[in-house]
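Researcher: Good morning. I'm working through a list of sequences from a screen, and I'd like to move beyond sequence-only analysis. For each chain I'm collecting a predicted structure so we can compare shapes side by side. This is the next one on the list. No need for commentary yet; just the structure.
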Amino acid sequence: MSFPSDIEIAQINEHDNMKNIEEISGLLGLDTADIEPYGHFKAKISSNGIRKAMKQENGKLILVTSINPTPAGEGKSTVAIGLADAMQAIGEKTVLALREPSLGPVMGMKGGATGGGYAQVVPMEDINLHFTGDMHALTSATNTLAALIDNYLHQGNELNIDPRRIIWKRALDINDRSLRNTVVGLGGPTSSIPREEHFEITVASELMAVLCLSQDLDDLKERIANILIAYTYDKKPVFVRDLNVEGALTMLLKDALKPNLVQTLENTPAIVHGGPFANIAHGCNSILATKLAMKLGDYAVTEAGFGADLGGEKFLDIVTPKLGHTPDAIVIVATIRALKYNGGQKLAELKAEDLNALTIGFKNLKRHVQNMRYYHIPVVVAINKFDTDTDNEIKLLRTLCEGLGVDVEVADIHHHGSKGGKELARMVVRATDKESNYTRLYDDAQTTVEKIDTIASEIYGANNVEYSRKAENQLKILKDNVWDDLPVCIAKTQYSLSDDPKRLGSPRDFTLHVKEIVPKLGAGFVVVLTGNVLTMPGLPKKPAALNMNIDNDGTISGLF
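Model: Good morning. Structure tokens for this chain:
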């Protein structure tokens, strides 16, 4: 009998084991006034619940990240969920904090973000689809601002905004390559000013970053007011506050700011909130979600998107200073399959034992371990076990990790849930008791170029950074406007430490190509686009949507 699909496992266990959301909130010390239920199994944590939780002491924080993703699969979210379940199973009060899925990966190629096998957050169909409407609210607010900008141009343009220098983009929460570059305002004088327009996926929008970094409604409103939207004909910056619409946009996001409470298959409380991609945005769930997880549990488990070179670095250099709490341990997820793929074994042959490919591919994991050690936080390697992993391969990977002096444990979580993760859980708990001396990779006082150079050389392994003419002009704008003291959020392919997705393993001494630099003043960082990275992805030739269906009873199939 074949192993059931994720949705089959979720549907069976949701029916048999899910607890009412009021019971889950009760495990956290929250009462009915502290949550706003969306049906029986999901809820928003109310403003009252947030204020109540923030009075508690912080628990310990565990950051889960991974090696670079491959078609072979890594299972970072699955391990994060299974680790939280396993920690709960060994008697540690644990709360999970994760990002919300985007419809782009769900309908496209990557899949959702609710874990897999017997380590999932549920109700998985709801979370992977419309959930509580946060993505829709963000999309609406993003496009409302775009409409207000175009209306301002149409109604007289008193600020003298240059239509050629509007940097605010419209958004859609689906991969739609046809909207990357388009024209709006066609149709004559009654249809506004014709101009070039661009769409990006909602998770790459600045409002997503702003939502994830805001502490409350006042902070949200101030950040929205500070968003740079355009330049005038004489190249002066224009902000949302200049249009006086920050109040209206904050109003549209008032409910989206409240974190969402759900549970795992094993009833571990999970706060799922915010969903920026790590390859084109900062890749971490909201600060409010992480803070609540720390306040409501003795341990909080959170994850940062894609590899440690992206989400891990951004969590530590962008989020941690704003969070005000350093991770007590970092878990790097790796699979033997993915490491063999990094070592040159073909995708179709990964089921076959290949110790040589594993040894070569281990260089990728080694680099990520070294990179995370730059921050002087205890590191643990979690080997996410597949059925095809041989005893020889597991033994070799353990030996290679032990040669680095890094703690390592096998996690058989996908097939066995918390039972397969208890040893990893114990190891992670021990790691949080070790000495930690968080050291940030760079200082805000450094120039943008110095920050980019530091990340490129120390994390990616580049020996040179090359700037396009457009990027060089944008660096000058940063300096002229005194925006040079912001953290750097590098948009880069997730598949390689370099900006070339085909350079696997542990590339060194390459050139990082910077094509564009965009100040995100509401979010409080500068986005640096490298290589061929796109902020509006496209769907694959055979999108996952082709396999999805729903019957007359409302039962979904083929979601994953």
